[in-house]
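Margin note: ligand = zinc ion.
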Amino acid sequence: MNAKADILNALSIDVEEYFHARVFQEGIGGAVAGLESRVEMSTDRVLALLAAGGAKATFFVLGQVAAAHPGLVRRIAEQHHEIACHGDGHELVSRQTPDEFRTDVRRAKTVLEDVTGKPVIGYRAPNFSIGRAQAWAYDILLSEGFRYDSSTYPILHDSYGDHTASRFPVEVWRHADQKLVEFPIGTTRLCGVNLPIGGGGYFRLLPLAWTLAGIKRVNVHERRPMLFYFHPWELDPHQPRPPMPWRHRVRHYVGMEREERKLAGLLRDVKFTTIRDILAI
Ligand SMILES: [Zn+2]
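Resulting structure:
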């Protein structure tokens, strides 16, 4: 029996290579030269998974990936998913000057729009690196033609997350009649604490039932949609495993063998569409 609730949620995928992941890069000291590209193979698996589950999603594509694999971006767009921007070189916003940030997002947006022939209106910062100290980035995003940002995970976390941020879409910047909306990654609230139900390493680590129960709480009790995210490399347990400290290895590779099966289970029980659809922009 199809037990999907009637409420639609937003699904997002950050399209990057396994070696763009921050934990992987730190684990190998940034020595990514010569590592094989696996993004086409892993993203094609994601597309097959979404087609089987009848889900639409927003794909935040890295500009450098789009430049090297334009055919992949076209395949995603042809299947009526939304193409959005994950920046160009996967540099943290918190490590860029405003000028460097503008150059990075402009380059990536231009590549993506050239490949698809459609405007790109959504942005997600690498590693959710827009916090309170980077609020200047909103002004740049709006002036570069973006309409929404999705760079907040409102939880306590050692390298990202602002547990005081809004848990649902909220206007964060405005210029005349143009506004920028922030759509945070999904959380559920229990005993005054925001708990992660929106994907990433938590989804790989925790049982599927945890995520399903959390999404149900948000959909049924709060009557709101939530936003889930993952990366194609999380479905690729056969990616290269260069030597790295154990704590990096555990964090990067945990639960990868089960990821595809868990995602299929998630798509069976939860109805997903693009961020653009949910925000109706
Ligand atoms: Zn990323």
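The radius of gyration is 18 Å.
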